[in-house]
Amino acid sequence: MMCPYQVESISRVSERFSDRHRKALIVQATGTGKTRIAIALT
User: Looking at the 3D structure of the chain, how many domains does it have?
Assistant: First the structure.
């Protein structure tokens, strides 16, 4: 189960990718699920 901030991160990065941007940066504190976000984006 994803937290609301993780879902928001996924949607924002997905929007960037759909706008043909090739890079995005996710900055979050330790233990907030950055790896899960990256997995969801693949």
Answer: 1
Q: What's the pLDDT score for residue 32?
A: 97
Longest dimension (CA), the chain: 29
Q: Whole-prediction pTM value?
A: 0.86
The range of the structural domain enclosing residue 36 comes to 4-41
Question: 32 in the Ramachandran plot: left (φ > 0), alpha (ψ -120 to 50) or beta?
Answer: alpha
Angle (CA) 16-24-12 rounded to 5° is 45
Mapped to the 3 state alphabet, what secondary structure does the chain carry?
Answer: CCCHHHHHHHHHHHHHHHCCCCCCCCCCCCCCCHHHHHHHHC
Residues in the chain: 42
